[in-house]
């Protein structure tokens, strides 16, 4: 889980990458940012094809948008929606180390049981993208209990895909990742995650793509991030350049 200090359980984030995040969703980023598309490229990166008369590289199916609203209790049809979130940097609690920018307390988690949700940073130059940072905080679900009986979810399996099903967020299995502005992230349907947490000096604009049907309890469900009587959870936000390496 993490180390405990003065009644607070502190989590250390690791740098976001596809291999460590795959249980929760998808990371979208350019795998070869130094490669300039030209007709003369002889060896293409994995999963890439040439496009636009050789002036572009097209990476195929970089994330998987899923719509499970057909199984929602209301039976109200969904539609693809694209919103923009302008996210200011969060206020942090004081840290206990000169390597830390501060502590972000995890208070609330949410999930979208019937849809994936993709956050795409917008309008950042390459230099700004490396300086812009945000936290991705996720966890698995606890076993079903009376406390979540009123929260509708899809079946555990839909069209061969395994879904989390019922259950409130498990505070003992929370994981935190540090992302930068060159990375987009897709949360899997039903994945408990924190609302967007931008850290650093500047806001980040995100285009957010998902499905929705306008029924509040089917579009988004919220829960407390910690169980009553348990310690406060917080993420130790490292200063820029001092992040924990990718695993």
Automatic annotation (TrEMBL):
Keyword Lipid biosynthesis: no
Gene3D superfamilies tied to this protein: Ureidoglycolate hydrolase
Gene Ontology MF terms in the entry: ureidoglycolate hydrolase activity; ureidoglycolate lyase activity
Keywords, ordered alphabetically: Hydrolase, Lyase, Purine metabolism
UniProt cross-references to Pfam families, sorted A to Z: Ureidogly_lyase (PF04115)
One annotated GO biological process: allantoin catabolic process
KW Cytoplasm (keyword) present: no
InterPro entries assigned to the protein according to its UniProt record, in alphabetical order: RmlC_Cupin_sf (IPR011051), UAH_cupin (IPR047233), Ureidogly_lyase (IPR007247), Ureidoglycolate_lyase_dom_sf (IPR024060)
Catalysed reactions, as listed in the record: (S)-ureidoglycolate = urea + glyoxylate
Superkingdom, natural source: Eukaryota
Subunit structure: Homodimer.
Name of the protein in question: Related to ureidoglycolate hydrolase
Organism: Phialocephala subalpina
Organism phylogeny: Eukaryota, Fungi, Dikarya, Ascomycota, Pezizomycotina
